[in-house]
Amino acid sequence: MNHQSPQQVQSSHRRRILHAACALGLTVGLSGLVRADLVGILPHIKPSIVAVGTYQRTRSPAFQFRGTGFVIGDGFLVATNAHVLPDTIASENREALVIVVPGGGEQGTVRAVSRVADERSRDLALLRLDGGPALPALALAARERVLEGQEIAFTGFPIGSVLGMTPVTHRGIVSAITPISIPQANARDLNPALIRSLSNDVFRVYQLDATAYPGNSGSPVFDPQTGEVIGVINMVFVKSTKESVLSDPSGISYAIPVEYLHKLLAQLR
Fold it and tell me: What superkingdom heads the lineage (predicted)?
């Protein structure tokens, strides 16, 4: 049996306290570092965040908000969720698909866009600005997957139709990487070949511990230290599929990994 003197016990106790304090200091220090990085990176993120919707001059309100998008590539491309875009545009009534760039007036600057690519099975879409000038673009991270526990942030327009066109940032971590298969938006889109494809087309999404809202659909999820986009917030298809048994929505949010956005971009080349 190991007997320790009172001095040894006291010394051991002091060492444990010191180790705990060092560990706590490291945790607080890392958290402070992430916050400092986020403060420094946000001025580079926010100019690339746009609101996606439709515009009709004779309508009130003229702009109908549908979700968030973010500028990538050459400054003329906007990434968002496919479900954010309307099925049809009433062009005969001069309705147009647009983005709104915050600033430049009380309501922001309205820019016309065209849909150039979409991937319904990943709920991603790309828009192209109809004319210049180019907007500041966000960098996309490499295709490698992120790690569980990694710090993240996302910026968008939560409930934008109510809270307005002010970009809002949330931060958290990747709490899990979970499998999902996103169904089509409408049953008429399903056919035997597509059903077989969906049954074999399970892919992984990021589960986040930060709360996103419907207007956040299409928001970029980024590394708060580098500003590189690692995913795209999805608040409809993934959430409804994963949580269909819940009577009330949870605070869990989901994001499509950026590797699928890379694949969609490759279709344009």
Answer: Bacteria
